[in-house]
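pasting for ref
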Amino acid sequence: MVKVPCQDIVMNIIPAIQASLAAELVNLGISQVQAARALSVAPSAVSQYLSGKRGYRIVFNDEINEIIKDLAKEIQSGKLDENDLEKKFCELCGILRGEAGCSLSCKE
């Protein structure tokens, strides 16, 4: 079976971003339920992210971790709506893939 780049993004990169972001949100004092709402995932997903059962395959470098921390602070402040968060995920995905932006499956 052919493995396309999008498969790696969906199976590994996005869950890793969500796991790191969930951890940062909880570190900022946001409940797991609120973090789940912010990330549009089930509370059980956040629990699995925090316990390392899900989204643990990728360890980010300091630059990416700083971007995720800043994103968590923006979410906490209420400055981002769902569309803004989607764009931020696409930007982060693009950085992780070494490209200027997300060109495969993200909306501009």
